[in-house]
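Thread: quick sanity check before group meeting

JM: Hey all, I'm pulling together slides for Thursday and realized we never actually wrote out the predicted structure for the chain we discussed last week. Dropping the sequence here so it's in one place. If anyone has concerns about the input, flag it before I start.
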Amino acid sequence: MTSTTQTPIFQSATNPIRSTRDVAHYSRSQFFRFDMEPGQIIDYHHQRNLLVGEDFIVSLLKGLEHEVGESAGWLCYQIGFEWGKQDAVLFADWFKEFYKLTLATSNLAFAMETWWWPYTVQGWGTWSPNLSGKDSGFFYVDLFDSAVAKSLGYMGKPVCHLYSGLLAGFFSAAFEQNLCSTEIQCYAMGNDFCRFLVGSEQRIQAAEFWITSGAKANEIAERFKAGEIAPEPELFVKAGAV
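JM (edit): ok, ran it. Output follows.
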């Protein structure tokens, strides 16, 4: 998505916020502005959107595979990573504009939910982050209705590399650390939902090795719990973070 204007399109929420209804713009009519004359769809955060179907997603991914072969997943991850880093900066701006808060001054769970809900409106799916391992340097994110996995159907392997990169890029900026992410279970593998692990490169490499050896998501969690990977510094938002 690219910014199309510097002029605010929508009125900002008042401060203090009396109710979450003041800033929850989930409905299509509230979140999107359909400007028919130039053929543009601008969302609540002044970003331009495109409406695409499953055929577009499948064709895009298959086209990448045709061009770069097995590197397509890595390329999607890198695209997602850069997207996540840039979106962290955009989020910091509108989070402060609407809520008068920063990542460092807000409740982290609230900030994370606030960051993700526009993705839900745009069709990227709903999520459920699990921060219970944050004090050991990692956490999980469950994703429901992945646009990629739902479009591709059963593939027998993780396919949501774009989401992995998006999560890694955003939280690398949020926690000011070099974080990575990998998908440890996927709807395209026959699971009910997708699950991602976000943490250090060492932890992600270990998880990916176990996955290639046939380990399931719950088995990876048990191995972490058993201390097969030593705990790492707690993830926390620093005052200078975006």
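AS: nice. The longest strand covers residues 139-144. The beta strands are 32-35, 40-43, 48-49, 126-130, 139-144, 180-185, 194-199.
JM: adding both to the slides.
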